[in-house]
Design a protein that fits this description.
Blueprint lengths: L2 H10 L7 E2 L2 E2 L3 E3 L5 E7 L4 E9 L2 H15 L9 E9 L2 E9 L3 E2 L11 H20 L12 E4 L2 E4 L10 H17 L15 H8 L10 H9 L26 H10 L14 E2 L32 E8 L2 H14 L6 E3 L10 E9 L1 H14 L6 E4 L1
Antiparallel strand pairs: 1-2, 3-4, 4-5, 5-7, 6-7, 8-9, 9-10, 11-13, 12-14, 12-15, 13-14
Length: 391
């Protein structure tokens, strides 16, 4: 980057609100990293909320990046932030590449200063990133920027940023960066110099093989995926077994970490409670808001007590939330729309970890029964990304 570009950009990062990049208005300045700036904007006739990232470039570099982004925009994967548009512009004498992208709710870097991820959250994060990297590597791309700030929450999905993707570098570089990020997510520290021996499996194996000094000795993405798919030892905390793993659908929506990421965006709305309550039975109806209060409904019949959880029993999980109220609202909506499924809110028993709340449609099941119920729920449209787990 030439010096004459650096000074104007640094001084102008938060001064370009109300300017335009191409046809896109630069609305609110959201932040920047290195030599870049990110603003909120809108995309398309329906004014879809989006972000626009500005990066200073010279002529040849800008054209090269624009060609690559054009090729990437023709690809589609549910684990990658969507690219809407890209182009070249000039603002206050600075030549810029702009990239218009799907707007995320928050990123992993907002969570880690407060706490490390739980093993459940780390597994969900890892599955999402592995799926996205597998797709990129198969298409001949290298991500080149695996780090917490590029692991994003969009609604209830985990996605990987893609504005830094290139043809340069090696997939082994992405693998090493993934190992660093995994250790950082679980310990709040980067590995220095070796993988912490306190990591549980399969994270210790994955981090160790990702961080090998020799790039040729590192695992590739397929090997990481295979290790994730292996059954966990009985001593692992909160184990989750996956019967089938497909790289094309490796990203699991409803991931616990999506909620953790969104908690970083607005802590006042997502404050984690101190202790998990017992499983809650879904009420019969949602309260309706109105300017004129309706007549009071008849008192509902007493709710039956929640079922006793058997050790090792299997669940079908339809959604995950950080707040009990949010989980109850979602479960209630599901109960009204799909009354044939028994919908409950369940908070797993945890030790020394902050609680979270699962919307489940089956409990105290065998593994086979849970798998069959999961397939029924998906076929009915209740939760296309439902999965089974046990505690």
């Amino acid at each position: 980057m030439t010096p004459n570009l650096e000074r104007p950009l640094i001084e102008s990062l938060n001064r370009w609100e109300s300017h335009h990049a191409g046809s896109y208005p630069l609305e609110k300045y959201l932040g920047g990293a290195g030599m870049s700036a990110v603003y909120s904007t809108e995309y398309g006739e329906d004014r879809t909320p989006a972000v626009i990232k500005l990066m200073p470039v010279d002529g040849s570099e800008g054209n090269r990046r624009l060609t690559l982004l054009s090729a990437l925009s023709k690809q589609s994967h549910r684990g990658l932030i969507r690219l809407f548009d890209a182009g070249l512009c000039e603002i206050e004498g600075v030549s810029l590449l702009y990239v218009v992208m799907e707007r995320a709710d928050a990123d992993l870097a907002q969570v880690l200063p407060e706490r490390a991820l739980t093993e459940v959250e780390a597994r969900q994060m890892l599955e999402a990133v592995v799926g996205a990297l597998s797709f990129l590597h198969e298409q001949g791309f290298v991500h080149g920027g695996i780090q917490p700030s590029n692991i994003l929450a969009v609604g209830d999905r985990i996605k990987l940023s893609c504005d830094c993707v290139s043809y340069a570098g090696s997939p082994a570089d992405d693998v090493r960066a993934l190992g660093v990020t995994l250790v950082q997510a679980l310990t709040q520290r980067k590995p220095n110099p070796r993988t912490p021996g306190s990591l549980a499996q399969p994270f210790f194996d994955i981090a160790t093989h990702c961080l090998k000094p020799d790039p040729q000795s590192r695992w590739n993405i397929r090997q990481i995926a295979a290790r994730l798919c292996e059954p966990e030892a009985p001593a692992d905390k909160n184990p989750r077994r996956m019967a089938v793993y497909s790289m094309s659908i490796a990203i699991t929506a409803l991931a616990v970490i999506s909620i953790a990421l969104m908690a970083g965006r607005d802590r006042s709305r997502t404050q984690i409670v101190a202790a998990p309550p017992a499983a809650a039975v879904i009420p019969a109806s949602l309260p309706q808001q109105s300017e004129v209060a309706p007549p009071p409904p008849p008192a509902p019949a007493p709710a039956p007590p929640p079922p006793q959880r058997k050790a090792g029993a299997w669940f079908v999980v339809a959604a995950t939330y950080a707040q009990q109220k949010d989980a109850e609202n979602r479960a209630h909506w599901m109960a009204r729309k799909w009354p044939e499924f028994k919908t409950e809110v369940y908070s797993p028993p945890l030790q020394n970890e902050k609680p979270y709340y699962l919307v489940v449609i089956g409990s105290n099941l065998t593994q086979n029964a849970a798998a069959q119920l999961k397939d029924r729920a998906r076929a009915a449209g209740l939760a296309l990304d439902a999965y089974i787990t046990h505690f």
